[in-house]
Amino acid sequence: MPTISALIITTALVALASAAPSRVKTQHTELRDEYDFVIAGGGTAGLTVADRLTEAFPDIEYGDVEVTPGFFDPPGSPPPATQMNYSVPVPTLNNRTADLLIGMTVGGSSAVNGQFFDRASRLDYDDWDYLAGEVSKDVNTRWNWDSLLPYFKKSVTFVEPDKAIAQALNLTWDYEAAYGGIIPRRECAAGNKDGLCWVPASQHPWASVRSHSGQGHYRDVIEDRPNYDLLVRHKVTRVLYPDGDPAQGPPMVEVRSLRDGNVFTVRPIAEAILSAGAIHTPQILQRSGIGPQAFLRVPASISSPIYLGLATTFRITRQSDLA
């Protein structure tokens, strides 16, 4: 079986105490001369991809790049594990700005959310397929609810609540008192996202600790993966194709250190994988000249409708002072 190497570049902020120190890199001088794969983003998907690749091809090297403080900073010293991003003024909101929270830790947003393991509605996923149009017809698996549901199920190990504990503690409640008038449902993971729902917790059933990709796809596997490196406190800025031609092989990945601003490039032998999240991945692509040419206003390496039609969730807060 061939061996591959991977490098993950990430911006993670939170420590995983048992992570292998030799595998966590904090500066470019610690990197190998070459990697088979370079993955931008050590979040929910990036770590999963790196885990699967290093497992399937134990002799191939991987690199993962994400912006993050080190794993081994003293407790309490790292910055918060979320990054606040602000929108431009929104005309329909009276020109107010909205903030978007993004996970900045090994594990990404799966490590900082409310431990709600939830799915969107059937219509949301079917809209992906509709918006993709002709593009979706070129792939073997379409991005709609029916195609994705088997993979949703595959990713979950459901553990029922302990009935004895619930009975011993007399855990009861009055739905009508708290949620009168709202349609109760047993759960909303079957594509119906209306009413009051049970939401499973993304949590280890016995240890009662958060279950996220940083645990399951990095900390729990790294000891047996000498081909799996993680570069922290760095950020991928763009990808650069040789002579500006995507046909000339995988691109170089441009990386900037968050410590000293040093910029360098890493070129994978096989492939560069962008997995920097719904906000930062389109930014990297557009800075790389990949996107709608009318939007970029520069010659595009690849003309593609990157980020068009994307709707995200943000929050608007209001503070009131009471005398």
From TrEMBL:
Any GO MF annotation of the entry: oxidoreductase activity, acting on CH-OH group of donors
Lineage: Eukaryota, Fungi, Dikarya, Ascomycota, Pezizomycotina
Keyword Oxidoreductase: yes
Keyword terms of this UniProt record: FAD, Flavoprotein, Oxidoreductase, Signal
GO biological process: secondary metabolite biosynthetic process
Similarity remark: Belongs to the GMC oxidoreductase family.
Keyword Flavoprotein among record annotations: yes
Cofactor(s) needed: FAD
Leader sequence residues: 1-19
Protein name: Glucose-methanol-choline oxidoreductase N-terminal domain-containing protein
Glucose-methanol-choline oxidoreductase N-terminal domain mapped to chain residues: 277-291
Entries under Pfam families matching the protein: GMC_oxred_N
Organism: Apiospora kogelbergensis
